Amino acid sequence: MFKLSHKYLQHSAPLYAIEFSEKLNLLFTGGGDKVVATWDIEKQENTPFSIKTNSAILNLKIINDQHLFIGLFNGNFHIIDIDSREEIKFFPYHKFGVFSSTLVKEHDLLFVGSGDGTISIWNANEYKLIQNYKISEGKIRAIQQVNDAVYIGTSEGDLIKIECSDLSVAKKINQHSSSIYCLTKHKENNALLIGDKDAHLSVYDLVKNKITISLPAHNWPIYGLEWIGNDFFATCSRDKIIKIWDAQKLEVIQRLSFPDHKGHLNSINNLKYCAHNQKLISIGDDKQICVWEMQ
């Protein structure tokens, strides 16, 4: 299904954050070298647009096709205007790393999750703080919008629901068996897919309000979940493997690893699927950016 097209090896430290701008047709990557780099996937080259920060980069998010959110290991985050390439906002707000973020366009809300166990909610136009919750004693790595609600996974394994219409309520709806590392909405079913520290892939039914399926998916923690169209999704793990899944059957249809597929040598930390050119991009501890092309 996927074959390695090419690799980039120009970062000098492990990579954690990845984002894609359809407007600019640019891939953004960042990690331990404190540099946001950009890539033209079609031309297979690095571009001059780069941003130097003062801490490792953990999270990147495109906001309204205009701004780039950069979450840092020291708890700070930057808002960069993509066209002018200038910083428009800087927030030394959280005490520890900014691991996750989600934009809710319908309500102009930006949810930010941190290693200090807090969720901060910001107006996505003016970048003013609206609400703040302390919901965990550890890292918040996973945030996912589903319809008019946002679901948050914590290091204790709690699944927290916040209604966008009433930000004053943060409700715990489930206790998962392991730390939640990634979340995504199931595109066909009214459910969430959960990847956890214990390498399990689980399905949380949003109607029944419970885990209905949980299966061993990798050998080490699952760090990324990414949809490939409506019928397939990919997972990546500390075990150096990418797995492509049939979404309905929850069966693995392809396993991308080294040396068979010339992939990553170390932990794979994140994934991004670019639908317009059917390419899956992966990043990891080996500093490599791998571009996988659908066959």
Structure description:
The chain is built from no helices and 29 strands. The protein has a single domain, classed as Methylamine Dehydrogenase, Chain H (7 Propeller), CATH 2.130.10. By secondary structure, it is mostly beta strands. It starts with a strand and ends with a strand. Strands 2, 3, 4, 5 and 6 form a 5-stranded antiparallel β-sheet that branches. Strands 1-29-28-27 form a 4-stranded antiparallel β-sheet, with no helix packed on it.
For the residues shown, what is the average pLDDT? 94
Fraction of residues in β-strands: over 45%
Main sheet record:
5 strands, antiparallel
Series of secondary-structure elements, N-terminal to C-terminal: EEEEEEEEEEEEEEEEEEEEEEEEEEEEE
CATH H-level superfamily title: YVTN repeat-like/Quinoprotein amine dehydrogenase
- Structure classification: mainly beta
Short characterization:
This protein is mostly beta strands. 0% of the residues lie in helices and 57% in strands. The mean pLDDT is 94.
